[in-house]
Amino acid sequence: MAPSLHDRHDNLPTFKELPEVEGLPKGCTWGFWDRSGRKDELGTLNLLTPEVVKQAYKELKDGASVALGWSLTKPNAPNFWRKKLEHKLIDHADLGPYTGFDDEIHFNSQCSSQWDGFRHHAHTKSGLLYNYVKRQEIIDSPNSGVLGIDKWSERGGIVGRGVLIDYVAFAQRHGIQYSAVESHPITHMELEQAAREQDVEFHQGDILLVRSGYTKWYESTDPTERDKITSVGHANVGIRATPESVAWIWDHHFAAVAGDSPTWEMFPPADWQCLFHDYLLALFGTPIGEFWDLEKLAETCAKLGRYSFLLTSAPLNVPGGVASPPNALAIF
Questions:
Q1: What is the DSSP letter of 172?
Q2: Which of 37, 165, 248, 281 makes the best surface tag, with the fewest CB within 10 Å?
Q3: CA distance 183 to 235
Q4: pTM here?
């Protein structure tokens, strides 16, 4: 058995160096974060060590903060038959001589800003969720909590150094024209080049945010046309998954990734045999954030002249939860 990655924080293996896992593709890390006979349920969130968090706090210089959650009412017309937000106001005056209100909120956690948890997507070919968890385990024991997003709350939420790669600005600088609602690929080479142009140096444990322009498109498009596209359209800009880009993501040892598009990766993909959802959620155990509102963040980064910041996120503490609004802040 390969040594636990907990013992190799200062010398993590490259993608090429990852040991082979029988019956699974290169890059599978199942079992590598296990410790003391306990199966891991955190994946690359294990990279957010106390030292990494303390280093992230050095980003606090300007006293500015930006909330990264889009309105839970958006998109107005979700796709994949998902239920949009229902908000019910309860007037206390209906119950007695008292002035005040409660409210009830019902929504699909895959709508609006979200973290995809490890219950959300199984490795396509094997049908297994992160770290050998079978679908039937969750069906048979839905309250067992295995791979529930509440595990992220138990560890103290997500706190680390965030870095923004502003692909919208990069495309403008380089004359790249594209639509946010077409399967336009963002390559890992472009992410690398944009980072250099922004004077960003990646660190182990970073939380990578990519602004692709999807929410910008949404906010600037006629509502009728916009709702038609979001309800039935299944194409969007995103990072293109290739063997090289998958290795690039692992080799930078990001704790999590997020963006403003519905899928983070380009959709439909160029190759259905190579999906970031397979590698990140299922094989690496890397959270994926989608539909994040990065517009004000991009403005703030440009104004301050820096694209790194302290990022905090407190997912909903729902036992066995599949996904959650990120409740994320970027703090400068």
A1: H
A2: 37
A3: 5
A4: 0.96
